[in-house]
Amino acid sequence: MIGLSKNKKLDDVLCKIFANPKTYIIGAGFSSDVSQFSKYLPHMKFIKQIANLVDIQEVYKKKYPDFKENGGFGLAAISERVTKKKICKKEQVSN
Length: 95
Description:
mainly alpha
């Protein structure tokens, strides 16, 4: 993404996706991603146009107030508790 940060076509496509009222962006701790996008992609407008963002960590903490005693609220803990299956983090990519 950083290498394409000045690509107007990419930004236009992402704006259409993120600003579409029929599109829901589902993320985990997405506010930190927004900070990173803003820092490293200052020329791109899409990040300021998110119409419908659902942060599963916030939803999870409301649904399961005992989250601290049950593994926390990381993506792996949420996935395991909700789906009763562990997620494979072998192909995980961070940052």
